[in-house]
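fyi for ur records
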Amino acid sequence: MELALIPPYAHLDTLQERNYHLMLPQCTKNSAYFDTYAQLCQSVDNFVILDNGIAENQAWPWDSLISLGGAFGVSEIVLPDVMGDMKKTIHEIQAVQDRTPDIFSYMAVVQGQTMNEIQTCIDIYAAMPYVSTLGIPRHLIKTLDNPHVREWIVKWASREYPGEFQIHLLGSAPTRPQEMADMPGDVKALIRGTDTSLPYVQALYGNHLRIASEEGRQENYFELEGWGLQPHLMDENIQQLQEWVND
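which gave:
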């Protein structure tokens, strides 16, 4: 499984030795972020996913995402979704299906309030030829009140649609900071990658991932200029998470 990191602007340098990335469209307004991702996208060795901004409460219009993705040369774009609502998410995706140029691959976010809705959502995605990746969001852990729900979805989708989709875990749930440590290796082998700000968030709280708190991102997280962050703890957290992902 690949690991995409989401650092504050002050620590964008931690992305340089990695080749799997998630780019947040709203962050491209920051010049350092813009320049960093422009450089990352230039390398054929890097896989860059362009998020749709929904999870950050800053949804971008679809045509603007396509233009931004083309300007940067991203690898994949996250299709529109509506947090927790399967029917509205499907409607949003169907509304843009004729505007999905084949220069990108596309990730569809699995949404729903029940296991049945999640299964139905994936069944519908399987009939959409332009959907190549399933994005499994972190909120499902809380929404379905099940700490292992993403593991279950990965296994179910891989069993029902073998070889049909790549799978990406969108974000880390604050209520389950050790999710990657607990996930079985055979399940991780089915997942292409995940993205998270967890190592930096916990370092800002002064925590090592092994004793991480269940607190979410700090207010103005991206603009924090290293406030309260101990560099050695940040590095240890990144290394620890990478070990969990690789196990």
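The mean pLDDT is 94. thats all i got for now
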